[in-house]
Amino acid sequence: MRFPSPDLVRRALSGHAAIGLLAGGLLYLICLSGTIVVLREEIQRWEQPNVVETAIIAPQSLQRAAENVLASEAGKKPTEHFYIHMPNDALPRTVVTTDNQAVYIDGEGNIADKEAHGWTEFLINLHVYLHMPGTLGLTVVGALGVMMAALTLGGVLAHPRIFRDAFRLRARGQKQLALADWHNRLGVWTLPFGLALALTGAMIGLGGVATYAIAGKWYGGDLEAAYAPIFGDEPAHDDRPAPLANIAAATANLRAAHPDLQPTYVILHEPGTRGQYLTIIAKHPRRLIYGDTYIFDADGRLTDKVGISDGDLGRQFAASNYDLHLGAFGGLPVRLIFVILGAAVTVVSGTGMSIWLVKRRQRGRASPRLEAVWAVTIWGAPVMLGLALIQRALFGAQAPMVALFWVGLAGLIAAAILAPRAELWGRSLRLILGALMAGAGIIHAASMDSAIPALLVIDLSLVAGGAAFLVPALRRLAAQRRDQMDMAPAE
């Protein structure tokens, strides 16, 4: 008896292909969601368009905001960390987040509305964790970042003429050549960007996992102590009651001492206790670090800073990964460049598996089911994102979008296995995607109480993107119908 048997070999190859398809699909989801998440603040604003906006907020208004929000939580679990997100160009809104709620604040420090951007959080969670539990999600996403870096470098080594042919594009003709040229050209043009994304993503994901291991090995499982050498530590708690800390004085003192810095977060630790203190995270101009943390006592006096901006190079390097990965430096022009390059990297991740499937077909080893599964993964994922947005609009920010996304995508994959017609699936899902995008842009623009230019640009982009999917697909359907009519026998 021959070992391994031909049947066992075929099963092993099928399993190998399925695992590759799974890894490729997850990497595609990471790239797709990451491209959208670059504009997370604009999307949060788009998701709740009719919320009061303030470009700046006075220190005394911040003090009133803290008093009003904490007063609204009387009788609830005491808040240990009170966060104020300061308004900026991308999100000109003041947001207060506590252990119990998240609300928008108007220019006078009054509660204006509840924060309810569930779809934005759904997208961020998909990109960072793939909707898995914390440590597991970080591990999987970090490992995918390593895989992406290996694929990027391996692609360069596997194609010696890749740079020589950087401007050679055969967009028409044989499907394999067209796919390969798009894959290789975009891979070359986005090589530094893709490599930087992969490495920073891997470090962020696996760095969190490594910190858990370090905490267990050397800090008795204390995660805060493990992070302290980079992000600073917290003093001992003193829960005895005390008047609320002077947030107004702290923000005013920071502005006086460092007028060139832009505060991004004001954080009140253990509010209303004797152990309370304030930290303000402030962005440094022309730096890749997310900012430095300035520490104030309860009276608002500046006492220290963590030292990220001028500390050890390792600390500065660790604090630079976040903004470099998300394009959170240089303002809107840099974010738009990240969106364009991110879309190109997403195409590269999608076409890689498509090229492999086409080659299998040309070698007489076609796998219609794998081709159909890949088609519904590529086009079904953005469709399910659109359906999750509709669910959010109909049922509110607490709608079960995660369940809809994964159950819906799994259902599409199951249907593709039962009806393995990749071209039909791709065309149908592109039509649905185009309709969802165009409809979302039109309905959203009509729902705004007042025209906000930045949000109208997003609406117009959605309509234009939807038309880009709809028009070619409708033309192809019309051409097929004409061909069928021409072939029909005359009566």
Q: What would you note in describing this structure?
A:
With 491 residues, this protein is an alpha+beta fold. Among the domains are: 49-116 and 233-305, no CATH class; 367-491, no CATH class. Helix content is 63%, strand content 8%. The chain is built from 15 helices and eight strands. The chain has helices at residues 6-37, 40-47, 59-72, 118-129, 134-158, 175-189, 191-218, 223-231, 247-257, 313-326, 331-362, 368-395, 401-418, 422-447, 453-487; strands spanning 81-85, 94-97, 102-105, 111-114, 262-269, 277-283, 292-296, 302-305. The protein has an eight-stranded antiparallel beta sheet. β1 (81-85) and β2 form a beta hairpin. The chain is globular, with a radius of gyration of 26 Å.
Radius of gyration: 26 Å
Through-space gap between termini? 63 Å
Principal-axes geometry comes out as globular
Report helical residue fraction: 55-70%
Q: Mean pLDDT across all residues, rounded?
A: 88
Major sheet details: 8 strands, antiparallel
**Beta fraction:** 5-15%
* Unreliable stretches covering 5 or more consecutive residues: none
Number of strands: 8
Class per helix and strand makeup:
alpha+beta
Query: What is the ordering of alpha helices and beta strands?
Result: HHHEEEEHHHHHHEEEEHHHHHH
Q: How many H/I helical runs?
A: 15
Query: Largest sheet, order of strands side by side?
Result: 4-3-2-1-5-6-7-8
